[in-house]
Amino acid sequence: MKFSGINRRHFLRRTFAGAAIAGLASQLPLSWSVLAASPVQPKISLAQWSLHRQLRSGQLKVLDFAVKTRRDFQLGAVEYVNQFFADKAQDQVFLRQLKQRADDSGVSSLLIMVDAEGDLAAVEAKQRQQAIENHYKWVEAAAFLGCHAIRVSIADNAKKTDALEMQQAAVLGLQQLAQFAAPFGISIIVENHMGHSMDANWLATVLQQAGNVGSLPDFGNFSGDKYQGTQLLLPFAKGISAKSFAFDENGAESSIDYHRMWQLIQSSGYQGYIGIEYEGENADEDAGIRATRDLLLAVANHAGR
């Protein structure tokens, strides 16, 4: 997930999804009916951020996210974002309803993406400790929902902070949070998000030194080469964020080579979910999610032929 402004290509509106898949079919060649019947079925989840416009406008209620994921996208796993229920981490009534909606829809709750709770890589020890403790309630909420992890970000606002100094602080902060989370059965996983964490070498070093923390490689959030960055983070991966912005006439993502990403994932031996995180600026979110889903299915089946 990314909050900073990025120039992105415009995405064709509502009628695009069908045309995109038709283009993929002629290119690979594949069709939706073939995809549906194929033995190659990657594990695909939906990140809540993909629907942030609908959620923020009130068009979609947070409690209906899992219902919509199953009904409209035929997906069986979700990744929550704490921004959309920031004051509900300890609201047992709300969490019970959220869990029940997912269970009733046959949808697995995988993780909570946690933002705005302080920097776990803060160099100042008191500030870092406060950030660690701010995350405790989300560990507990994730365990209640049946998730396996919370996703955290580190070093997002790091322009004036020494990279090595913040790297050392990140190791300490992540280790302490992971120690708290372990009895709950919750993993701490770090996304390449903003600041120093967009440098895959920097983040991989943090993860290697922390030892008990995973990664959530995001296809779109690297300051350097996205393919080398993904490859560096995949050995630590306990989740993957399939970022998408816009698509060409064949249904391929315009700025990210999904075939190449799929090959890297397969070569790494990663067996977990790949989460759709559609972030096109001028698109129907539903169409963008479907186009990303169908692209993931297409590249998986093409690779398996």
Task: Describe the 3D structure.
The chain is α/β, with parallel strands linked by helices and 305 residues long. Helices cover 44% and strands 12% of the residues. The chain has helices spanning 16-27, 32-37, 52-57, 65-73, 92-104, 125-145, 163-181, 200-210, 226-233, 258-268, 285-303, and strands at 44-47, 77-81, 108-113, 149-152, 187-191, 214-216, 240-244, 274-278. The protein has an 8-stranded parallel beta sheet with strand order 6-5-4-3-2-1-8-7, covered by helices on one side. Strand 7, helix 10 and strand 8 (274-278) form a beta-alpha-beta unit. Helix 1 (16-27) packs parallel to helix 11 (285-303), helix 7 (163-181) crosses helix 8 and helix 8 runs parallel beside helix 9 (226-233). The radius of gyration is 19 Å and the shape is globular. The two termini are 32 Å apart. Mean pLDDT is 88; it is low at 2-35.
Lay out the secondary structure.
Blueprint: H1 16-27, H2 32-37, E1 44-47, H3 52-57, H4 65-73, E2 77-81, H5 92-104, E3 108-113, H6 125-145, E4 149-152, H7 163-181, E5 187-191, H8 200-210, E6 214-216, H9 226-233, E7 240-244, H10 258-268, E8 274-278, H11 285-303
Parallel strand pairs: 1-2, 1-8, 2-3, 3-4, 4-5, 5-6, 7-8
Helix pairs in contact: 1-11, 6-7, 7-8, 8-9, 10-11
Brief write-up:
With 305 residues, the protein is α/β, with parallel strands linked by helices. Helices cover 44% and strands 12% of the residues.
N-end to C-end Cα span: 32 Å
What is the beta-strand fraction?
5-15%
SSE succession: HHEHHEHEHEHEHEHEHEH
State the total count of DSSP E strands.
8
| Mass-distribution shape | globular
Number of helices: 11
SS-derived structural category: alpha/beta
* Rg, Cα atoms, Å: 19 Å
Largest sheet: 8 strands, parallel
In the sheet with the most strands, the strands line up as: 6-5-4-3-2-1-8-7
Helix content: 40-55%
What is the residue-averaged pLDDT? 88
- Stretches where pLDDT is under 50 for at least 5 consecutive residues are 2-35
